[in-house]
Structure formats: C-alpha cells, structure tokens
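Form 7-S
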Amino acid sequence: MNKEAAFIFEQSGCPSSRQLIDYLEGKLSPEQVHQVEAHLAGCVFCSEALDGFQQVEHKEQIPVIVKQIQGQLRRELEGHRSRRRRKKRYVWLSALIFIILIIILVAYFALYFVMKRERSDAARRQAPSAWVIPGDGARLRPGAGKA
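Output:
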C-alpha cells in the first residue's frame, strides 16, 4: 500500500468523488465530461471507483463511503508502518546484543591469555636460571651435582 492510496481522490490529477458523481448523473459540461473521460481512460483506479459508484443506489452516501474507506486505509497503513518500525527495532536490538556478546567474548579471551602469560612468567621467575650438565649427560638442577 502506498501513500497515495491513503488519500483517495485527493491526488492532483484525479477528479474528485463529487466530479465522478456529477459525471454519473450527467451534471457536467461537455468540456468537463471530456476531461473526466480522458482521465478515466488512463487511470484504472478512477475507472474502478466509477464502477463502484454506479453500483451505489443512493449517490448522496458516496462521500461518506469515501471518507470511511480513507479512514480504513489510513489505519491499515499506520498499522503496517508500526509493524515495520517494531520489526526494525527488533533487528537493531538483535544486532546490539550480538555486538555486546562479541565484545564480552573478546574481553574474556584477552583476559584469559593475559593471565595465562602472567602465570607462565611467574613460573619462569621461580624456575632456576642455569642448568648444570655433568659429564654423563644427565640434566640436574644447579647445585645438585655438587657434593
């Protein structure tokens, strides 16, 4: 549904509902009749509206019917817009949650690897710095081969 559909007969090029009713009742001048017929030849919407107007028994009720249709179309259009806004909001919320989860995972792994490095650095600081290699090739801790 487009914005123009919400404003039946209010478009600049279309005749008003009153003009279409006058056309049906033969109240228009020959020039106006020609203009309306030329428009009807190219506008499917107005042609369909004229067919609908011909089926209404009491022509004086047509403006009321048109206003009711306009109100219904406006409500449907607004409902469609609000559903689209809601859907767009959920997409943004999902994207935000996904980004936050990625940030949390990156922070977790960064902390994990920093702490792992600190633990291995601390273990290296506590380990002996030099090894004594005796003549038989066995590795001993410093001072273990001394007697």
